[in-house]
Amino acid sequence: MADDTTASPEAEIVLRVRDLAARFGGRTVFEHVSFDVRRGEVFVILGGSGSGKSTLLKHIIGLYESDEGSVEILGEAITQLTGAARHALLRRIGVMWQSGALFGSLTLEENVAVPLEEHTRLPPEARAMVARAKLGLVGLADAAGRLPAEISGGMAKRAGIARAMALDPPILFLDEPSAGLDPITSAGLDALIRQLARELGTTFVVVTHELQSILAIGDRCIMLDKEAKGLIAEGDPRVLRDTSENPVVRAFFRREVVA
Amino acid sequence: MLTPPDTPATMAAQPEGDGLRLAFAGRLDAAAVARLWPGATRAVHRGQPMTLDLAGLTGLDTAGAVLLLRLERQAGEARWQGLAEGPLQAMLDRTRNALAAPPPAPGPRLSWLGQIGQATVERGRGMLGQLSFLGEAVIGGLAILPRPWRLRISEVMRHLDEAGLRAFPLALLLGVLIGLILAFQSSIPMRQFGADIFIPNLVGISLLRELGPLMAAVILAGRTGSAYAAELGTMTVNEEVDALRIMGIDPIAWLVLPRILAAMLVMPVLALTMDLAGLLGMGGVMATLGFPPVAVLNQLQQALSLQDLLGGLFKAAVFGLAIGLVGCRAGLAAGRGPRAVGDAATTAVVGGIIGIVLLDGIFAVLFFRLGL
Lengths: 259, 372
Description:
The complex is a heterodimer of chains A (259) and B (372).
Chain A: E1 13-24, E2 27-38, E3 42-47, H1 53-60, E4 70-73, E5 76-77, H2 83-90, E6 93-96, H3 108-119, H4 124-137, H5 153-164, E7 171-175, H6 183-200, E8 203-208, H7 211-217, E9 220-225, E10 230-235, H8 237-243, H9 247-254
Parallel strand pairs in A: 3-8, 3-9, 6-7, 7-8
Antiparallel strand pairs in A: 1-2, 1-4, 4-5, 9-10
Helix pairs in contact in A: 3-4, 3-5, 4-5, 6-7, 8-9
Chain B: E1 10-16, E2 19-28, H1 30-43, E3 50-60, H2 62-75, E4 79-81, H3 87-100, H4 112-144, H5 153-163, H6 168-192, H7 199-237, H8 240-246, H9 251-288, H10 293-303, H11 306-332, H12 340-370
Parallel strand pairs in B: 2-3, 3-4
Antiparallel strand pairs in B: 1-2
Helix pairs in contact in B: 1-2, 2-3, 4-9, 5-9, 6-7, 6-9, 7-9, 7-10, 7-11, 7-12, 9-11, 11-12
């Protein structure tokens, strides 16, 4: 499994979504959403603004609960778990929030050490070193002692990834990792994601609408659409770009204006 | 020896020549590292030859890699053995590279004397800033006089509603309670001298001259000053204030003047509410002591002058100006980051209360000199 391509079809399914729907009041954001993510894959959830990408992500990680459909992460239905079982599952996923969501009163190093403090019994020195290693991994070794208010938006995102990776989780969820970053930083982040997926077998579920990123990192993708209120495409993004017959998908990948 | 992949890591330390051989087996993850860290770091000594035997290792996470690298750093150097090319080696290399950059040196720390000096300078700058903000507000206010239609009346009304009408029940409640408490507390000693008929004089003068305006100002600082700071602070953090400036709109005229005007207009009304409610509370206590309302009114008429009332209401308006200024300035001077808005609100309340007490002292001297 050490090659750079899609995880093999028989790899273990680490995320299983079945018939999920999101409704707020009387408004349906999406419905009948089903897909599987396999271990080691970089799986991209894409779609235009307002198509419900971030809502879908929040349903998957159990922040929102839906009456319809089911979500299983690593074989467990996250919304039905409580107490210690839920705690144990949360330890095995990492989430990078769109804005980084760093705690403003803690330095970057302390931010990354928060999950280590909560979930491990590592001595302080070990926690600090792990935190520094994670920050070094995303290129922020120099900024370890700075507060979130003192860094740029792109740095906050990278620090958010470092914190999400603190416990070496088998699945990482990234919400818009490259939005608002310059192309070079963004490409560096894409390379990091690919490298982690290849070397560690970490599974990535990435929400994004950045075309460059999707093509650079995505093994497979699904596409949500506002009008269709659900999935309109699933597959290898490069194949979708070249062969999809769906006008919205074509417009998305070719940056056309939908008539 | 074949170890199943999920066995928690074990460590075996053996002497090897004049050095040490540390053999790890199993899955070296955060839980295992937490267990092994103290023993491992104690076993290794600087300058002692060390071999790290990793042949039995089946898993390695960042914490595990950190332990191994830390041991290497502690010993000075290490001989690595038994680790095949693959994900474990990759994890080790990646962590080594990530830790290669030395931790940033902490900035120079000031001595305690320096810290006091720095804090003093900062406070002084803050006060100067407050003063220059007062100047800006005055200039802004004068500039708008020839073109009064540029003042946003709807905005003034909204703040009148929020700072005044919505504070009215609170002022009423606090006023009654304060009048009641004052009258009751003073009745105990005054009764001993048979002077309880003078309670209305005491309570009336304290309320109209001091407590009415002061308590109304405390309400305004807590409710409205903090709200101004939070609102303007959020706008500053969101760059809305910069946007206004770039559109050629003066934030003083657009944001600050309506708020200060509302605070100044609302304060005399709130103070008057406090006064009347307080007198009502005092009347209640007097009734229980057996004095009819006529007697109380009579005393009040003798004791109080219109000057007392108007002086108090004038003070109230000045307090409103001070609270509005401090609140708006705290908001506009807000820093960046998530704590900025909270800090601004705190500054507004604390600064506002300090400001009104200082002003009250100045007024006491002034009124005394003027013979009011």
